[in-house]
Design goal:
Distance between the termini: 8 Å
Number of helices: 8
Helix content: 40-55%
Largest sheet: 5 strands, mixed
């Protein structure tokens, strides 16, 4: 995640907390009226016009965050963040993670996006850094590693459009995570969003195994 994306996320969260201060009675009513956490999150997202990161921050607020001192600190932090970055979340909507999904790579259906990635990068998909091999052989080898629980490949999808691939390869007791985003989908926040979602997905595939992230910001 780039420094700018980190600052944008912090600003989104800080702004949501300040809005929650101002509309605290409405926020509490929305939570009390909700049937479950998901419906409460949806209600807060609509009420405060914020992303899921902002919603999660509001739902996890502790009582000591409701004081005037905390409000002043949040306002000061928001002012600093506003001066630090020059674009809004609306300019990189994908970074919120609200629209992106990750699904398992299909050897039949996703050869096209892997071929596009390989043509651009010219290296094997296993993370070794070796020159790319024949496409079918690469995909077959990846399928074997997935079956052996040594790898997980995920396709990043936004509204049924394939925007990138997340590669997770088990190496020396850690999962080497690489994220590739299609050139025409870059600079929109997809790399950041894919990184966030992949942490949860890969932790489920490889419980208790540390993840090593390989600079997704370069192709976000």
């Amino acid at each position: 995640m780039t420094d700018v994306d980190q600052a944008t996320t912090r600003r989104d969260i800080t702004d949501a907390l300040l809005k929650a201060f101002e509309r605290r009675h409405e926020v509490l009513d929305a939570i009390f009226d909700a049937d479950d956490r998901e419906s409460a999150a949806d209600a807060i997202a609509t009420l405060l016009d914020t992303s899921r990161h902002g919603v999660d921050a509001v739902l996890h607020m502790s009582l000591d965050q409701l004081t005037k001192d905390s409000r002043r600190k949040n306002q000061a932090a928001l002012d600093d963040l506003n001066s630090e970055i020059t674009f809004t979340l609306a300019e990189r909507p994908a970074s919120s993670g609200d629209t992106l999904d990750l699904r398992p790579f299909s050897a039949e259906d996703d050869a096209d996006i892997f071929a596009e990635r390989t043509a651009e990068q010219g290296v094997a998909g296993d993370g070794s850094g070796a020159p790319a091999g024949e496409l079918g052989a690469e995909i077959s080898a990846a399928s074997d590693r997935v079956d052996a629980e040594d790898a997980v490949w995920l396709v990043a999808v936004d509204d049924d459009e394939k925007v990138g691939i997340v590669f997770g390869e088990l190496t020396d007791g850690a999962v080497d995570v690489r994220i590739w985003i299609r050139p025409d989908s870059r600079k929109k926040g997809y790399g950041v969003s894919a990184l966030r979602r992949s942490r949860t997905e890969l932790a489920a595939y490889f419980p208790g195994v540390p993840l090593t992230i390989r600079a997704p910001g370069a192709t976000a």
